[in-house]
Specification:
The protein has 125 residues and is mainly α. It has one domain: Ammonia/particulate methane monooxygenase, subunit A (particulate methane monooxygenase, chain B, Up-down Bundle), CATH 1.20.1450.10. The protein has helices at residues 9-32, 37-54, 65-68, 74-87, 90-105, 108-122. It holds the Pfam family AMO.
Length: 125
């Protein structure tokens, strides 16, 4: 993995991983009172990743699969949906659910940063 990746997946993934499920969850909750929007969004992303790998599309193939595979996001999406279902409050879900989603899903970002710091320390300039 090159730390100079132009796609900026290290910074973009955590931001996009919470905004899309939160947006789908907000729409499904406000219009239909359905509390599984985040899980539905992540499952759609999982299907898109499968289609990408199966049909050899080039769009996501340069991302390291063990870091960005959408199955890492499913536990966080379930926790986000459960907090909305139990509380019924979008504000409480935004605060507690966002924190829980981050802890469950995107803990890999910290590991990536540690890996890159270690890689930079061992690089001969």
């Amino acid at each position: 993995v090159d730390w100079k990746d132009r796609r900026l997946w290290v910074t973009v993934l955590p931001i996009m991983a919470i905004t899309f499920p939160a947006a789908v969850q907000a729409v499904l909750w406000w219009r239909y009172r359905i509390a599984f929007g985040a899980t539905l969004c992540v499952m759609g992303l999982l299907f898109g990743e499968w289609v990408n790998r199966y049909f050899n599309f080039w769009g996501w193939t340069y991302f390291p699969i063990n870091f960005v595979f959408p199955s890492r996001l499913i536990p966080g999406a379930i926790v986000l949906d459960v907090i909305l279902m139990m509380s019924g409050s979008m504000q409480l879900t935004a605060v507690l659910g966002g924190l829980a989603f981050g802890c469950c899903s995107t803990q890999v970002t910290g590991l990536l940063l540690l890996h890159y710091i270690n890689q930079l320390n061992t690089t001969v300039w």
